[in-house]
Amino acid sequence: MSPTALKQQITHLISELSTCYELCATIPSTRKLGSTHTSFDGLYTSLPLTIQTISAKSATLRKVIGSRMDLGDETSRNILTRAIKDVQTDIQPRLWNIAHPPPRDRRSGEQQVPGFKDILRQVTAMEFDVCDALESLSLRLQASKPTPAPTSTSAPYKANTSQPVNETHPQTPRTRKPREGDEVLVNIKELTQLLEHLKASWVEYSSEGRKYYVNAFDKTTTWERPEGGFVQSMPRERETRRWTVREERPRRDERERETRRSTVREERPRWDERERERIWEDGRGW
């Protein structure tokens, strides 16, 4: 068995879901949906979110648990196999038939479009099963991780100084093998707390003037602000004041008056001095 069996299954499942999304993108150009197509819009919006949720869940648990998540176990691989089979044999063929309708039969009229609501329900259930399987796998791997052997309490090792020392190739002390960079040691309680915090975290977005919230754990979208959770609000844009001509004219006149007053204050001593000199030159001074 490949050491990355579960990782390959996740990649295969994401590829099949991407094909379903491409079929949904083709449907509006090949099939008349009618004036209201809420179920189709929900399915078309949900598919990329499902792909993103499964990919993010796998990557996050891979960082926490390490490379053991790539292999998985028999339980998780069976769930992924069943999910891939459901997409290949049920969801994808139904979308293909909708995207490539047969020619219209004049006697029977336009054929009825299969229910998008049922397909959306299947996709949602499949996403829940896959994410739950990955989370359960991470808990099992964390619980089955071998505990390190206890260190010996005996006296420390002392080097034998009676033996001659090789100065050309001196012996270096042994160092402990470093831990792999992608592994982080956490206990089950800490992992559970992190997952619960992730489930209660939401990110605020805005679309066409309406705010909606996306869950950080399973990418669930809601139009109502979640209560009792952690919400990351959107950054507020700083308003810039634009001065109008009517507002700017008094400010410009005030600056000009202040400039003239400042000039008068600076020039008045020199004007007084020139006036006194002129008076004395005319002989009118005392």
Automatic annotation (TrEMBL):
Residues 196-228 form the WW domain. It comes from the Eukaryota. Transmembrane segments: none annotated. It holds the Pfam family WW. Residues 144-182, 244-286 are annotated as: Disordered. Coiled coil: none annotated. Residues 144-156 have a biased composition (Low complexity). Gene3D superfamilies: 2.20.70.10. InterPro entries: WW_dom, WW_dom_sf. Residues 159-173 have a biased composition (Polar residues). This is WW domain-containing protein. It comes from Hymenoscyphus albidus.
